[in-house]
Amino acid sequence: MNQRETKIHVELCKFVRLAYPRALFHSDTGSGVKLTIAQAKLFAKLRKKRGHPDFMIYDASIIPNPSTLELMVYNGLALELKAEGVKLFKKDGEMVLNPHFIEQAEYLKDLERRGWSAKFAVGLDMAMKEVDRYMKGVTT
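Structure (tokenized):
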């Protein structure tokens, strides 16, 4: 993980602690850490697959769907954090051909199928808006 993403993790955790002190959350800053070969093999055995999101809130929420106005019930929020300026999608809306981003997108889709709100968040501002949207139960 680069320093810009690490800063987003730190600042997002501060924000959630202050704005939502009762929220149960976890920030995974372990990805991108340099490991020995033995450590990397152990970590690979301890996970289902690659691409686990960076930030998780384990509180349920009910959010109105902006297109259908139906209420969506979510088990939790999962965010894959990216540094400001990272381009995830091409102009046509397709994801860039980055194998790591594609793995992460697949993981987010798996979480959505299990009742989670799961998204990419590029930059701290977007991450904070997603947390607010989720915790307040409103759409932006």
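The chain has a mean pLDDT of 89. The CA atoms of residues 51 and 104 lie 4 Å apart.
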